[in-house]
Amino acid sequence: MNFSDSEIVASVMASHDYSIAGDAPSADIILLNTCSIREHAENRVLGRLRELQHLRKKKPGLLIGVLGCMAERLKEKLLEDKDLGMRIDMVVGPDAYRQLPQLMADAETGQKAINVMLSVDETYADISPVRYAANGVSAFISIMRGCENFCAYCVVPYTRGKERSRDPESILNEAKQLIAAGYREVTLLGQNVNSYSWSDKNSGAEIRFSQLLEMVADLDPLLRVRFATSHPKDISDELIRTIAGKDNICNAIHLPVQSGSTSVLQRMNRKYSREDYLERIKAIRAIIPDCAISTDFIAGFCGETEEEHRETLSLMDEVGFDFAFMFKYSERPDTLAAKKYKDDVPEEVKTRRLSEIIERQQKHSLASNHRDLNTCQLVLAEGASKRSEANMMGRTSRNKVVVFPAGNTVPGDYVMVEISHCTSATLKGKIASE
Ligand code: 5AD
Ligand code: SF4
Predict the structure, then answer these.
(1) Which of 77, 192, 216, 405 is least enclosed by beta carbons within 10 angstroms?
(2) Nearest to 190 by CA among 238, 156, 224
(3) CATH (residue range 376-433)
(4) What's the CATH code, domain 2-115?
């Protein structure tokens, strides 16, 4: 989401004749787009801001701004030099990016500038993102903003505000522009894409996410379409059928479960039980037998007992996730959990539980990759692999990373790759046909 938002910021800045500097020392303005999801993320941002202060000595007019969720959460506190131990010139929340040029002009006069107003309707629909860090093959399209689910641990509803969907026409136009520019894959982004809803101005008819997904997929059969993220409580059979019905909608669903224990899920305010989640997995597997399923886990949420933790491990074995993002619970100020529960799982217990989850996931990821050995996979090539220019990296529909000798392949090509080796993170093979 931040990657995508930064492309919007770049576009707002470009329309006021600013351009992207190659690196921080050569920049006149440095904007950090920030995340508040865990304390660790915020600490890293504060560390980076401290590091950047020395650049002011060489460039007295340098402006440093904090954008995004941390700006929204900490507001004026980020402008208190004494408390913070450093100077920040601008604080801009996620719904105020259109005001950046004005805020910049204020900051240039030496005043500190802040706008952290949240909006009920801002979707930046008319802004064409500047794809300054994209690979030319795969791009994000933001389809909605905000979240009103209020999961007990989560800061997002407070930092990103009310949920709002973006006009489908502007989404389709953005996808068409990407196709015209040679892109081959789009990921439709939202905190909870299943809540996407738009009423047509003329007919009043509702457009839901599954319909939007189909409309984007129908633009071009060579365009791969992905989406993130889905909330388990409202991933519908209709959506699963839409994915099954189109070859170019990727067979990969990210469905964050957070915990395998119904009592923990209840405390988390997730609005589904372990059984509900398993029922949705069953529905996905029945409709799309070869669908990759990935997830998120939080280890050591408030009051989590050893038994509840073991339920997460047993759910992992039951589902066999292809991939997971795994985190230790980090209390966020003012969330429901911070108000209602004690962050009472000792740090060393959280660490041990997280490592058990990671270890279990590595086993499942490896098993999932083993199943792909000696098969041919349709891979969309994205660019040179990290380790060697002679190798190309790409992804399968199921979102598995594949590395193979590049031959004549260029980014954006579809190639059939015969898989011969794997680790828990990567598949390796050679081109079977172009
Ligand atoms: N502590 C740890 N992990 C969190 N997440 C969200 N809030 C927290 C928190 N307070 C994780 C969830 C979510 C992912 C984006 O980040 O797993 O799905
Ligand atoms: Fe946070 Fe829950 Fe909204 Fe996801 S659905 S952004 S975890 S409140």
Answers:
(1) 77
(2) 156
(3) 2.40.50.140
(4) 3.40.50.12160
